[in-house]
Amino acid sequence: MLKYKLLGKRNPRQPAEPVKYYACLITSGKKDLQHIASDIAERSSLSRGDVYSVLEHLVDLFPQYLTDGQTISLGHLGNFRLSAQSAGKQHPDDFTVHDIKGLRILFKPGKQLQHEVKKAKFSRSL
C-alpha cells in the first residue's frame, strides 16, 4: 500500500492563483544491497553472501558499461542508459565538448514491472 500526503503548491508563473494540492508519496524506508540479497536468497538456493556478491559486481560494472556507451538491459526490470545535458548552439560548428554540462542516468522500466506497479493501492496519510 502506497501512502501519500497532500502538498499545497502555487504556480510560480501565476502567483495570484489559489494554491492547488498534489499527492506526494511517502517513502517507508530503504532497501540496501544487504536486504535485497537476503530477500533473493530466501527465494533461491543461493546464499545471501553469493547473491550479495553478484549484486556488488553488478553495481561495480554499471559505470563502466554506461560510460562505454552501452544500454544495460536487465530483462523484465528494464533498461538503463546515459543522456547528455548540454547548452544549445545556433550552429553545429560552435558546439564544443565544454558545452556538455553533465550526464543523467535514464531508466526505462520493463513492461512487466510497469504492469505490476500499476496494481499499487493507495491510502492517504494524515
Largest sheet, spatial ordering of strands: 2-1-6
Biggest sheet features: 3 strands, mixed
Mean pLDDT: 93
The dominant shape is: flat
* Low-confidence region ranges: none
**How far apart are the first and last residues' alpha carbons, in Å?**
15 Å
How do the SSEs run, as a string of H and E? EEHHEEEHE
Total number of helices: 3
Q: Mind telling me the C-alpha Rg?
A: 21 Å
Quantity of strands, as a count: 6
- Helix share bin: 25-40%
This entry's quaternary arrangement is single chain
Proportion of beta-strand residues: 25-35%
Structural class of the secondary elements?
alpha+beta
Topology:
Layout: E1 2-9, E2 20-26, H1 33-42, H2 48-67, E3 72-73, E4 78-86, E5 100-109, H3 111-117, E6 122-124
Characterization of the model:
- A hairpin with a 4-residue loop joins strand 3 (72-73) and strand 4 (78-86).
- It contains three helices and six strands; from the N terminus they run ββααβββαβ.
- 29% of the residues lie in helices and 31% in strands.
- Helix 1 crosses helix 2.
- It has helices at 33-42, 48-67, 111-117; strands spanning 2-9, 20-26, 72-73, 78-86, 100-109, 122-124.
- It has a three-stranded mixed beta sheet with strand order 2-1-6, with no helix packed on it.
- The mean pLDDT is 93.
- By secondary structure, it is of the alpha+beta class.
